[in-house]
Specification:
21 strands; FAD/NAD(P)-binding domain; 3 domains; 7-stranded mixed β-sheet; about 30% helix; globular; alpha/beta; Enolase-like, domain 1; about 25% strand; 5-stranded antiparallel β-sheet
Length: about 500
């Protein structure tokens, strides 16, 4: 017999039950335990179909940073010769050593997380949770054993998973970003399908290791980000040797029998296959093109992992297309005792730091008497391409749509990091843009940085934006010299001025 909808507080198995291993779920669980609540955290740490070990969201972010650093070190080795360094032997990269090191760190972080949960008083089960009735969750462990547990409050933090193209050969031959480190050998000639942040990060990492990479923009380049800055990221990647396919779609992926058509045996196809992968691409005009690759990595976006956790059984409303959950300003779903945190939320930016912050605030509202809501409007984020892109607030396009073009001024400038001068690296690669709302004393509503350590540079400016930073205040800030961030304190060129120069042919 199922438990009734509402019981006395002491009759539930748990005060709070978190379904899923998202970073926001971890945060709300640990914070709630700090208020002496009985908390259960459910997360099935199953490997991906390709065998890649799965970690928490913070682990995934760490992996992104490790891979970016691996690609940056190759450039640093090249730059070092201009600073007087000489090497006695050829410098080579070992893929297997990188994979082992990163996977070892993920395993260590997973053990540390379990210890942390125990020390916080959070119960943790490596199990799948499915809501079967109000305040009732069916828990299935790795051996298939089932039991039902009750909780006064439920939080869904199941995160997202890569979307599929749904084309012939995808399941058999393609991989996603989470499978990249399951490859026993370098991926060789790689096709990255998708211009998402995830796709460009993977493409930049592989290109940074010296591998040939092609990006098929399916459908757009960095959707949701400032498009003029996104095009500069694209240009930088092209200069670095990445090829791009435009206005096209994949129709199928098939295996060929010729093992040497796309490279030597060292770059042979993965997962134990013989031969290379032949990709059929259809252009916007309907022309068919075939290209051979060693690896095809799909990164066309992500969908919420909400299809098999029983939301429909209790009436939790989801977006039909993405599966993301509809929530109010309190992170509450259409069912009053069920909340959603992190990337499963519909219509909100996904970022680990944001999810952690929102999770802590939710626990404080539920159990600590707090009333502070999470501000989802000014969220800093970073794309870990070899040349980083960090952004906070609105893109120039979104600002003009929100306030009207006449009410928006965008100040911008290229800059040349001092450490790039001796190696004579591209002088016009790095870029900043400050988007201002003119009627509101030129309040800064968007800030975009493209350059080394862009995320670290942005962090302090993001705090200033939360406090209502204006262009006048930015101009009055003393810049640190020498340093890249000082460019933000001396911006005079506007987007309008640059466009006028281009019209006159002076730029």
């Amino acid at each position: 017999m199922d438990p009734p909808d509402t019981l006395s507080p002491g009759l539930y198995d748990y005060d709070l039950l978190v379904i899923g291993g998202g970073s926001g779920g971890l945060a709300v669980a640990k914070e709630a335990a700090g208020f002496m609540k009985k908390v259960l955290f459910l997360d099935l740490l199953a490997p991906s179909p390709r065998g890649a070990e799965r970690g928490s969201c913070s682990d995934i972010d760490s992996i992104r940073k490790f891979l970016q650093q691996a690609s940056l070190l190759r450039q640093a080795i090249q730059d070092s010769q201009k600073y007087g360094w000489r090497f006695k032997q050829e410098v080579l990269h070992d893929w297997s050593e990188l994979v082992q090191a990163v996977q070892g760190q993920v395993r260590s972080a997973s053990l540390e997380l379990k210890r942390e949960l125990r020390s916080c008083g959070v119960s943790h089960l490596n199990a799948h949770g499915r809501i079967v009735a109000p305040r009732t969750v069916e828990v299935t462990d790795v051996d298939g054993r089932k039991r039902r547990l009750t909780a006064e409050t439920l939080v869904v933090a199941t995160g997202t998973t890569p979307q599929c193209l749904c084309i012939p050969g995808e399941t058999e031959y393609c991989i996603t970003s989470k499978d990249l480190l399951s490859l026993p050998r370098p991926p060789g000639r790689t096709l990255v399908v998708g211009g998402s942040a995830e796709g460009l990060e993977c493409a930049g990492f592989l290109s940074g290791l010296g591998l040939p990479v092609t990006v098929a923009l399916t459908p757009d380049l960095l959707p949701g980000f400032d498009q003029k800055t996104a095009r500069k990221i694209e240009n930088h990647m092209i200069v670095a040797g990445v090829d791009f396919l435009y206005r096209c779609s994949l129709s199928k992926v098939e295996q060929t029998k010729d093992a040497t058509s796309a490279g030597d045996s060292a770059a042979a196809p993965q997962q134990g296959r013989e031969g290379t992968l032949r990709v059929t691409v259809i252009s916007k005009e309907g022309q068919t093109l075939q290209k051979d690759f060693d690896t095809v990595l799909v990164a066309v976006g992500r969908k919420a992992c909400t299809s098999d956790i029983g939301l429909e059984s209790v009436g939790v409303q989801r977006c039909r297309d993405s599966g993301r959950i509809l929530v109010n300003e309190r992170d509450q779903t259409s069912v009053d005792h069920i909340y959603a945190i992190g990337s499963v939320q519909h219509g909100r930016r996904s970022a680990t730091g944001l999810s952690v912050h929102a999770g802590k605030l939710l626990a404080r509202r539920l159990y600590g008497g707090g009333s502070v809501l999470c501000d989802y409007t000014c969220v800093p984020t970073v794309v870990l391409t070899p040349l980083e892109y960090a952004a906070c607030g609105l893109s120039e396009e979104k600002a003009k749509l929100t306030f009207g073009e006449a009410n928006v001024e965008a100040y911008h400038s290229h800059y040349w990091p001092l450490e790039w001068i001796l190696p004579a690296r591209n002088k016009n690669s790095c870029y900043v843009k400050v988007v201002c709302h003119i009627p509101d004393h030129e309040r800064v509503v968007g800030l975009h940085i493209m350059g080394p350590n862009a995320g670290d540079i942005l962090q302090g400016f993001a705090a200033a934006m939360k406090c209502g930073l204006t262009k006048q205040q930015l101009d009055a800030t003393v810049g640190i010299h020498p340093g890249s961030a000082q460019v933000l304190t001396s911006l005079t060129q506007t987007q309008r001025m640059s466009e006028a120069l281009m019209v006159r042919g002076n730029c």
